[in-house]
Amino acid sequence: MGNRLIELREIKKSYGNVFAVGGVNMHIDSGEVVGLLGDNGAGKSTLIKILAGAVKPTSGEILVRGAPVQGWSAGKSRASGIETVFQDRALAVQQTIVRNIFMGREITTSFGFLDVQKQRSEAERLMREIGFTSKVFSPDSIVGQLSGGERQGVAIARAIYNKADLIILDEPTTALSLTETEKVFRFVRNVRESGRSILFIGHNIHHVFDIADRFVVLDRGRVSLEITKAEVKSADRLIAFMEHIAHPTGPNPLDTFQAKSGAAR
Amino acid sequence: MTDTPEPSNRSIELSPLRRFILSNRASIGTLAVFVVMMGLFFIGNPRVFSDYRIYYSVLTTLPVAIFVVVPMVFLVTVGEIDLSFPSVMALSAWVFALGVKSGFDPFLSIAAGVAAGTLTGAVIGGIVVYGGLSSLVATLGLNFLIRGAIMIATGGISIAVVSLKNTVAYQIFSGTIAGFPVQMLWATLFVMVSIVLFNRHRFGARIHCVGDNPDSAEQMGIDSKKIRVYAFVFMGLGAALAGIFSTMINFTWWPTAGDSYLLPTLAAVFVGGTPTWGGIGTIFGGTIGAVIVSFIQVGIISAGLDGFYVQFFNGLIIILSLLGHRWNQVRYR
Known about the structure:
Chain A has about 260 residues and is α/β, with parallel strands linked by helices. Chain A is built from ten helices and ten strands. Chain A has helices at about 45-50, 75-80, 95-100, 115-130, 150-160, 180-195, 205-210, 230, 235-245, 255-260, and strands spanning about 5-15, 20-30, 35-40, 60-65, 65-70, 80-85, 165-170, 195-200, 215-220, 220-230.
C-alpha cells in the first residue's frame, strides 16, 4: 500500500503491574482503513488514547511518516494530523451543526466576531465532502434533532476540518441501527476517498469487516492477528478466529496466518 | 445512497419567516405573554393604561433590571447562576457614591464603580469556578458576605449624591430626551450589544458550547473555566451599571441597594424563556421578561386590585410562563 503514516513500535502501557498494552507493533498507511478489533479489556481503548496523546505510553516508540516523535502528547498527536472521534461523540446537542463543527476554532472577522457566512459555507463543503447531506437538515439544524448516524457525521466533519491525515473512530456504529450504520459507512468511505486514513474501532465484527481494508486484532494487550481483507476472505473466518482466542479449544481456524502475526502466548 | 424516509417534523424546507419563528420561539412566546398581560391590564383600567405617565415610571427603573437580567442570561446559559449580584450592585454604587461625595468628577466616579463591580465579578467567578463550588450556594454566601462587609463599613448609613443633579454626567446617563428617560436608551444599547455578543461573537458561541457540554468544549480546546469566569466578570459589570444607574435615579446610595432585585431578576430570566439547564438562552426574551416583571406590580395596583394581589400574580405569571416555555421548547438534554 501507500506510505507509512503512523507506526507504533513496542508500545507498552502498564498500570502498576498490569499491562493494559504489552508491546504493540502496528502501522497505518496513508489512505487505508484499518479495523481494530478485540474483546473488552483487550487494550483497544488504551491504544486509542495513546494515539490521541491522552495517555502516555510506559515505553515504546511512535513514528509519524517514518520519523520518531519525541515526547508524544495530545498536542503532538493533533499536530501530526491525528483526530479522534471519541465514543461519546462529544457534541453539544442543543447547538447547530455549524457551531459544533467550529467549536473552539470559530472562523472570525476582526475583534472575534463570527464570520457566519464563511462558517456556513465551510460547513456545507465539509458535509458534502463526506456525503453528509440531506433534504431534512442543513448546517443550521440543531444536532439534537439528528439521528445517531448523522451525529457521527457531525463529529467526522469536525474531525476532517482539522486537515487530519488519520481519523480515529472509536466505536462509531455502536448502538446504531442498520440504516444508521450504513450512513456512517458512507461518511467513512468518502473520507478514505479523500486520501485520509481511518482507524476504525468496533465491537461488531461484521461492521468492521465491511469497512476496513486490513484488520488488527488485539488480545490481552498484544496484537494477536494482523491480516488484510483479501487474506481473511470472510467475516465468518475472522469471527471464528476471535472466538478461538476467547476460548482457545481446538485448532486455530486461521492457522496459516498465525506464524505471520507472531501471536505469542 | 438513497435517502431513507425521514419524519416530516425534521424538514428544513421552511420559509425564512417560519425558520425565524421556530428558532426564536422562546422570545416570541415571552412577547406574547407580555402582550396578553398588557391587554388584560388595559381592559382592567383603560384610563391609567392609556396615560403615558405609567409607562414613564416603568421605563425609569426598567434599565436597572435590564443591566442585571442580560448578564444573568449569559451566566445561566453557561450553566452557572449568581445570587451575589445585589450586593455587587451596592458595592459598585458605593464606590461611585463615595467618589461623587468626595468631589471627584462623576465620569471618573462611574469608571471607578464599574471597575469595582467588574473586579468583584472576577473574584466571585474565580472563587466559584476554580474553587469547584456550586455557584448557587457559593454566590448565596458571597451575597451575605459582601452585603455584611458594606454594612460593617458604613454602619448602615446612606449617602446622598444630590450634587449630581446639574452635572453633564447626569444629563447623559439619567436625564430625559423629549420626555423619554435617557437611561432607557443606554439599556437598549446594552441589550443590542449583548445580543450580538451572545449570538454572533466567539465569546457567545463558547458560552453556548460550555453550557451545553463542558467535556466536549474542553476536548475541542476551549478553556471552559476561563469562559465561565468571563461570564461572572460580565455579571459584575452589569451589576455595577445597575447599581450606579439606580443611585443616579434616586440621588441616594443605600447600603441595602440592589436587595429587592434578586428574585425579580431571576424571575425575568426564566420568564423570558432561558431554561435552567444551560446551553441555550435568549437575551431578547430575558429583556421582555424584565419588562413583564416590571409591569406586573404597577399593572396590578393600577388595575384596581390591592397590593396583596401583587405577589399572587407575580407567581401566577412565572408559573404560567414556565409551563408555556416547557411546552414550547424541545429539550435535547
